[in-house]
Amino acid sequence: MRKTKYRSMGNIAEINRRDLLKLGAGVGLLLGNPALWAQEAQKPQPPARPKTNVDEALKIPRGAHSLPGPFPGRVVQVSDAAVTAEKRVQPEVVNAMFEKGLQKLTGAGMKKSFKLLFDKKDIVGIKVNPVGPGVIATHLEVVDAVIAWLVKNGLKRDRIIIWDRFDYMLRDAGYTAERFPGIAIEGLQTIDEAAAEGKADNSRWLKPDGTHVSAGNFDQQVYYWADVEGDKEEAYLNQHVFNGRHSYFGRLLTQRLTKIINIPVFKNTGNGVSMATKNLGYAAICNTARLHRPLFFDVCTEVLAFPVIRDKLVLNITDGLRGQYDGGPDGAAQFTWDYNSLFFATDPFALDMVCHNLLLAKRKEMQVKVNEHPRYTEYLRYAEKLGLGIAAPEKISHVVV
């Protein structure tokens, strides 16, 4: 078997084992590495936007909890400088911020807020962002506060699942069974890092029948289709499980979870953001590198239009205890600062519009060259046209506590 690393584009400088998967060409595209976009921009662009099957998703009737949820256009920001006192996150302050933000969002107490969004029979998936551990990943203390609230209101711990697309990223960021006893920790797929680096053959991820060991974790009956082919290289399959024109949703989402809580982090993706919508758009499905150049931001809208997310995503909490204004979506400590804020919304598109504008202001303050082209927020306005959320600033209520 070949031991070549997957290269989506160009020649990339050699980097170490972990950095290959977090910053290198294959996963760099998967995560949206701006340096790689610049290289890709030199290639001839596709003649037209590829067709997708989003219209099929939009035809399916919506449910009681469908986006944008009960509070369209409402975004609550809670800030407290004491949360990062003594250069460490203070759990008791996080808990207080969480309660203030949730109650301000719903206009109800903690118990009534729970009943508004959940019941005790739900299977709740908490989607974290583990990229950039130790720098900009979702803080464990924020997840602790969410779990404590769910459990206090009658949801058993074995009905809560912390998840992301990649299992190794969860481990790297501290999401382990030991740290969260009684809570399931699940990645939709694994990557053989040694094979990705060319240090081992493919036998640990490629089964004799030619399929990925994680193939069974994806539901081939539920998919985001786009008229763009995935790369045929085996190294691409190592990272993306499937190629072709279908990006399948994880079985965790299609068959088990009944509700989703989304906890992204406050950071940039080039001149755009890498927050609430991207945290789900590129994590709920496989075979994503093929989508970056022709459909990058639109994926963040269209994937969320599918009932598997649209009808289950009931709460978004952007973790802005630390912010990152440049170098994203990968962690870049030199561009981080203590922002000491949490953001709450049922509407992820209004949330991302508010956060985009706040981050843009921070980039200007730090004298980072910015590009304010409308394409960086067009996907949010697209979501408003589809009835998934609010993007027009005059329709958004941004409440600061």
Description:
The structure is a single chain. The chain is α/β, with parallel strands linked by helices and 401 residues long. Helices cover 33% and strands 20% of the residues. It is built from 16 helices and twelve strands. Strands 1, 2, 3, 4, 7, 8, 9, 10, 11 and 12 form a ten-stranded mixed beta sheet that branches. Strands 5-6 form a two-stranded antiparallel sheet. Helix 1 (17-23) packs across helix 2 (25-31), helix 5 (91-106) crosses helix 7 (140-152) and helix 13 (292-302) packs across helix 16. Residues 1-32 have low confidence and may be disordered.
Helical residue percent band? 25-40%
Radius of gyration computed on alpha carbons: 20 Å
- Determine the number of helices (DSSP H or I, runs of at least 4 residues): 16
* Mean pLDDT rating: 90
Shape: globular
What series of H and E elements makes up the topology?
A: HHHHEHHEHEHEHEHEHEEEHHHEEHHE
Q: Separation of termini? A: 57 Å
Which structural class do you get from the secondary structure elements? alpha/beta
**Strand proportion:** 15-25%
Care to count the β-strands? 12
Low-confidence stretches: 1-32
Tally of domains: 1
Largest sheet: 10 strands, mixed
